[in-house]
Design goal:
Elements: E1 8-17, E2 20-30, E3 35-39, H1 46-53, E4 61-66, E5 69-71, H2 75-81, E6 82-86, H3 99-110, H4 114-124, H5 139-151, E7 157-160, H6 169-184, E8 188-193, E9 204-206, H7 229-238
Parallel strand pairs: 3-8, 3-9, 6-7, 7-8
Antiparallel strand pairs: 1-2, 1-4, 4-5
Membrane topology: Peripheral membrane protein
Subcellular location: Cell membrane
GO molecular function: ATP binding; ATP hydrolysis activity
């Protein structure tokens, strides 16, 4: 497995929603093949920044280039270069599927073969049982399965959201080791987490709280809205969530936050594979002929 990677630069980028800035005045420099970490407390716009840096979310200020392609004019090209392995919510492995079903789906959508999958599994250090339900896997192995399936096609860039969510210390070390191995193949890896890894892993983009609250945040997010049954049981044992917190998937289906938007006017690119998965903020309004979408995102 090998990739040429992709460089990503951003200067002074800002995204805003109805309640104010999601993130603002952020600078980013990521070289091809680096493992870059977006770090900050929950609610600081980590996922939104990953989306913006991959051409999936419009900003209201600043400039972004992905592999020399300026956004938003060339957002489709950016989306083809930088693909998601895991984005919460909206792009996760179906927990009701079996491993073999997820592999088969990715072989069709990403045009990869069994050899690519086997090499990706070996790269991140997993060997899942094909008949195992994805929802029954340990959270760390489930995350690595998503990373492996994303990396199997040797993309130029890979997005991995909330890499430490719900993981014990040993699993976190294993995940970071695997992500470093993926970047060593040349793929640029962009991840988000509450805190960056303790070892030198590449550039770190720190997002501060926007409300001025200086209270210490827990090291790992405790978000019952996206927790698995396994994670909920662990959280209930700590008293951090109510015993009546519903298990995701047992209630009404949640809306997909990753709805489609068009590239900037004047784009001369043709749609390609993966070129239509752009996110916009829910409840956006058009304020003018050249205005960007506003909205609220995590």
């Amino acid at each position: 497995m090998s990739s040429d990677g992709v460089g990503i630069t951003a200067r002074g980028i800002t995204a805003r929603g109805p309640l104010g800035p999601v993130f603002e005045n952020v600078d980013v420099t990521v070289e091809p093949g680096e493992l870059a970490t977006v770090a900050g407390p929950s609610g600081t716009g980590r996922t939104s920044l990953l989306l913006a840096l991959s051409g999936r979310l419009r900003t209201v200020a600043g400039r972004i280039e992905v592999g020399g392609h300026k956004l938003p004019r060339h957002s489709k090209k950016a989306r083809q270069l930088v693909v998601p392995a895991l984005l919460r919510p909206g792009f996760e492995l179906e927990r009701c599927w079996r491993v073999r079903e997820a592999v088969r789906e990715r072989r069709v959508t990403s045009r990869i073969g069994n050899t690519d999958v086997s090499e990706a599994f070996a790269l991140v250090g997993i060997d899942p049982e094909p008949e195992a339900l994805i929802g029954s896997l340990h959270p760390g192995e489930r995350l690595l399965l998503a990373v492996a399936l994303g990396a199997a096609a040797s993309p130029a860039g890979l997005l991995v959201d909330d890499v430490e969510l719900g993981l014990p210390a040993a699993a976190r070390v294993r995940v970071w080791t695997a992500l470093k191995a993926v970047s060593a193949t040349g793929t640029t890896v962009l991840v988000s987490t509450t805190d960056p890894p303790s070892f030198a892993a590449g550039p770190v983009i720190r997002l501060p709280r926007s409300d001025g609250d200086s209270e210490e945040e827990p090291r790992h997010d405790t978000r019952p809205d996206i927790a698995t049954p396994f994670e909920l049981e662990q959280l209930r044992g700590t008293g951090l969530v109510s015993p009546t917190t519903p298990v995701p998937g047992n209630g009404p289906e949640q809306p997909d936050l990753f709805s489609l938007v068009e590239d900037a006017p004047g784009s001369d690119e043709k749609p390609g594979p993966g070129g239509g998965d752009t996110a916009q903020f829910p409840g956006s309004e058009q304020s003018g002929p050249e205005s960007d979408e506003d909205g609220r995102a995590r």
